[in-house]
Description:
By secondary structure, the chain is α+β, with helices and mostly antiparallel strands. It has one domain (32-264). The protein is 23% helix and 45% strand. The protein is built from five helices and 13 strands. It has helices at residues 8-26, 34-58, 132-135, 137-140, 200-209, and strands at 60-74, 78-92, 95-105, 108-112, 143-153, 156-165, 176-181, 187-192, 213-221, 224-226, 229-231, 234-242, 248-267. It is globular and about 55 Å long.
Amino acid sequence: xxxxxxxxxxxxxxxxxxxxxLTPFLHGRQAQRPDQADSSRLAAVLKKSGEYCRRLDRAAxxxxxxxxxxxxxxxxxxxxxxxxxDYQFIRKNQETKEKRNLVAVDGKKTEVRDSPLYTAAFxxxxxxxGPVGLLSSTWQAYHDFKLAGEESFSHxxxxxxxxxxxxxxxxxxxxxxxxxxxxxxxxxxxxxxxRSLGNFQSAEDWAKAHDAELQITAYTEFGFEKNGLxxxxxxxxxxxxxxxxxxxxxxxxxxxxYKNYKFxxxxxxxxx
Length: 272
């Protein structure tokens, strides 16, 4: 993460700041220590994110977009397939429906209505609700959180929060690092920890049996905003192995790009 460069002038200012800040302490008022400040900041971020996830989880949604998929799989040689779908997502009264029409394969037009996902190595569903499984008030109770930094992402100031499962979480569940917009608690990016992914153990066992190191990269970006909610712009996963000489061998890779959104309904205050 990018941190601030505390050069000479910054250090001088920091020293002056500490002297001023500690003055009330000498008269009986306790100064807030850095770890206490971080805890307070984290609590405020998690509260806003919980409220954001509540709106997201209860929202009535109806939109379409283009879903552009590039998937590389390897048997003896790499092979890449390109799929373009018209994607529709509808959510009303807590019922969700995803619909895809396949409109192109490898750049050639086609028309397959109500099409399944033709991806070979990867399956996914309800991508936009990834934040809810980590940051909703219900799921926060099953994770420990810590501040991991702050940075600029997609021209927005964000804090990076790391989520890990606590002792209350006894079933497999995805977790990782979350890029959160501090002013409203919305989520701009999630990088999933490879240990939390469904087939991690079998993939790691294979790697160990072949004197290799498993390296899975998986993240989701939420680059579109409408009525205070953020929508997916990219979903990416790569399964790779490092041999004993640290050479990288990519076994499978998928990139999903969402674009050309058209929104019909985005209602965040729904009464059931």
